[in-house]
Every structure is written in C-alpha cells, then in structure tokens.
Specification:
Helix content: 25-40%
Distance between the termini: 48 Å
Number of helices: 5
Order of helices and strands: EEEHEHEHEEHH
Number of strands: 7
Strand order of the largest sheet: 3-5-4-6-7
Shape: globular
Strand content: 25-35%
Structural class: alpha/beta
Radius of gyration: 17 Å
Amino acid sequence: MGTWLSGLQLRKTEDRRHEEPLVATIEVTEKNFNDIADKGIVLLDFWAEWCGPCKMFGPIFEKASEEHQDITFGKIDTDQEQALAQGFDIRSIPTLMAIRDGIVVFSQPGAIPEPALKDLIRQVRALDMDEIRSELDKELKNADQN
C-alpha cells in the first residue's frame, strides 16, 4: 500500500464486526484513468514515494478530498505509472492537475499550500465550460488550417 492511503479512515458496518476503508483519494493507473478523467471535476496529484515535497503536499490533498466529496481526487505514482507521467509531460513532482469534463484546465508543478488549493478548487468550479469548449474548437480549427 502506498502513501495515498495515509489518510485512511475506517467506517464501521452496522454489525460492527467488519470495518471498511473510506478512501477519499483513489489510486489512478493507466487502466482506470479514462474512467476517472471524463467525469466532472478531477484533481490529480502526480507524486512518488521518495519525493519529500510530495509527502508534504499529500496531507493537504487528502484533507481537500475529504472536504470536497463531489470532486474526484486521484493520486498517480509516477514511478509505477510512467506512461501516464510521460503522456502528460510530467517533468517535476509533485504536479497538480485539474481536469473538468475531460479537459485539462490546470497543471502546475510544486507543492501548493492549502489556501491555494482551496482557491484552485473554487476557480475550477466557476469555469464556464461551454466557453472553454468553444475556445478549444477555435484553436483546433486554426491549427488544422496551418
């Protein structure tokens, strides 16, 4: 088990004989990425076990995942998921990426403080996705013409 389970909480079932984990963040792999990335708001933390700043940012990311349960929070271990890291041109970790409705709307390397993460979440929620899709369509048409 990786550090993405560091904030693991346990929920007791009704008969109290079994406990089930409540995981606010999920481990994202090449196999489950497409199922995760197309649904609503997704925040991804690209990290590695050996990365000191990643370990500092991890608890901030976990706390936010518990506070915003309508958002998917995923952790991508860059050592285990090298194809995903290369696909997104991750050159430094931690890197935080925000995806909304399948479109990458933010990507930045470096651990960010809790207030900055809260502000990012606020901004991603406020995005006019119809306007963003329209801008992307224009950019694609211009690229096709050149």
